Amino acid sequence: MTKKARGFLLFTVILIFWCGAYVFFKPSARSVLSENDPAFANFAKIFHSVEIENPPSFLPQAYVETAPGKFESLPKIDSGKIRVINVWATWCPPCIKELPLLAKFQAQHPDIKVILLSYDLQKSHEELEAFTEKHGAGNLPVISDSRLELRRILPFTVLPSTLIINEKGQVLYTIKGEGDWTSSEVTDFFKAFMGSSNHEPQP
Predict the structure, then answer these.
(1) What are the backbone dihedrals phi and psi of residue 9, each rounded to the nearest 5 degrees, phi first?
(2) Of the candidates 171, 187, 183, 196, which has an alpha carbon nearest to the alpha carbon of residue 74?
(3) Are both 99 and 3 inside the same structural domain?
(4) Are residues 45 and 118 in the same domain?
(5) In this predicted structure, what is the pLDDT of residue 10?
(6) pTM
(7) How many domains does one find in the chain?
């Protein structure tokens, strides 16, 4: 075999391998639920508002307190999983009302990670954990913005607010206001959402 033929054969093998790898690893073209999807429309009705982030953004590299005196970058907490991050405060009655509902939602959806992100300024981590335990959400992890890093980037004007994040760490939906996380509308939304390949945002 000539040198030219060997080069052509090598190029062909590499091209076939590259095409096969692209097909295998290529994300599905199917997107997450849009405003026109009935499951999304019904889901949005039970909250004050639900915004589709277009284009989606990644979680900011802010450090939050995950345990007394222990801090971790927010994007790294349970990375690689679908996350529901609920932003709340102990002085917020709608937030308190939502806590046990989020706890039940977590129990019903073990493949989704629910995280409580406190925006309290004068509560220790131990106090926050005792508070959530008292209000029926002791099964949920509590993190707090005790260094005030996150609120400089995400100054939520409505509490509670909730972020739905895909496995890549992209914020796909922002929810404002409380809602019944045990409702059939929520169940149907996440059933449809989980069924969307790779939970990719729309192009």
Answers:
(1) -65, -45
(2) 171
(3) no
(4) yes
(5) 46
(6) 0.81
(7) 2
Which structural domain, as residue segments, surrounds residue 2? 1-30
Same domain, 54 and 71: yes
Structure tokens at 144: 């707090």
pLDDT tens per residue across span 139-152: 999 999 999 999 88
CA distance 9 to 6: 5
Q: What is the pLDDT along the chain (203 residues), one digit of tens a residue?
A: 565 545 544 444 344 444 433 333 333 323 478 899 999 999 999 999 999 999 999 999 999 999 999 999 999 999 999 999 999 999 999 999 999 999 999 999 999 999 999 999 999 999 999 999 999 999 999 999 999 999 889 889 999 999 999 999 999 999 999 999 999 999 999 999 988 644 555 44
Task: Measure the N-to-C terminal CA separation of the chain; round to a whole number of Å.
Answer: 47
* CATH number, position 129: 3.40.30.10
Same domain? 19 vs 82:
no
Alpha carbon 101 to its chain centroid, in Å, reads 17
What is the spatial distance between Cα 29 and Cα 177, in angstroms, rounded to a whole number? 31
State the Cα–Cα distance between residues 102 and 116, nearest whole angstrom: 9
Do residues 150 and 64 make contact, with C-beta atoms less than 8 angstroms apart?
Answer: yes
**63 and 41 assigned to the same domain:** yes
Amino acid present at 64: V
- Check: CB of residue 33 under 8 Å from CB of residue 164: no
Token look-up 């190029």 returns: 11
